[in-house]
Amino acid sequence: MTGGQFGMPADRSPDMLVRELCHDLIESAAAIGIFVRLADTEATGAGLAAGCQLRSRLEGIAAAAGQIVEICQRVLEQGGEPR
Amino acid sequence: MIAAVLFPAAAALEEPGLSPAVRRYLERIVWQGNWMADMIQDFLRQVQPGGMHQDARQSGTARGETVHAAIGGTDVMEVVNEAVALAALTWPGRATVESPPAPARCRLHPILLRRVIFNVLSNATRAAGPSGTVTIRIRREEDATMVSVSDSGPGFGKIPTGSGIGLAAAAGIIARYDGRIELGSDMGGGACVSLWLP
Description:
The complex is a heterodimer. Chain A is built from two helices and one strand, in the order βαα. By secondary structure, chain A is mainly alpha-helical. Chain A has helices at 14-46, 54-79; one strand at residues 2-5. The radius of gyration of chain A is 19 Å and the shape is elongated. Chain B has six helices and seven strands. Chain B has helices spanning 3-13, 20-47, 65-70, 76-90, 110-128, 165-176; strands at residues 74-75, 94-98, 105-106, 133-140, 145-151, 180-185, 191-197. The radius of gyration of chain B is 18 Å and the shape is globular. Chains A and B meet through β1, α1 and α2 of A and α1, α2, α4, α5 and α6 of B.
């Protein structure tokens, strides 16, 4: 293997910590969006039971996850390039 | 807002007649929701005055992590397997884990180790692409556990996407524990990230 060390200071500014948190929250919220789609496809294929609230619950989860992504993206866009 | 993820997911899990696959996805959603809450709590601890992780035993309450840390450090293998299993749900490529027979532990708090591993693995799967491979090797060194993540992608600097924040976050976390990250390329030309975890 070739390469070198990638160093970052252990003490990070709160601003940097917020950006890192938002980055990781986006990944996690995006994964939730994927799981919602997979669950919905699976449930549709299996035939949803009458009176089942699964779909509306999945829609609610997807909306919340989408809002988290949107807020975090806004934070990252405001911050400019990583420092 | 995380409650708006967790509550309906928990309620959906109570619905009768769910298929095993739907149940599994809902459980993953709950896991991710809890994981986001853990990350936020960890962030709040850090930004409090004097609130860095002085000791892994001082923080982390979810899923028995206090006990986990108290028995000699965080199980690296467990976190790697968790990350690989999650990646496999959304990434169709092939991931291989090579590990020692004996447990490999490190001082990083489980929440922080997860953030490190998830970020590095996420970069690797993205670089490898849907038909690529990612190899994770874990080995025990004298005073640290070494985790190397190599992918079959084109190597560092050859993919236009990515902000670099994930890797920077991983490096910052590891630096807090006096560990280090090395970036390089493996023999196939793909990227290789080596993590030295004290």
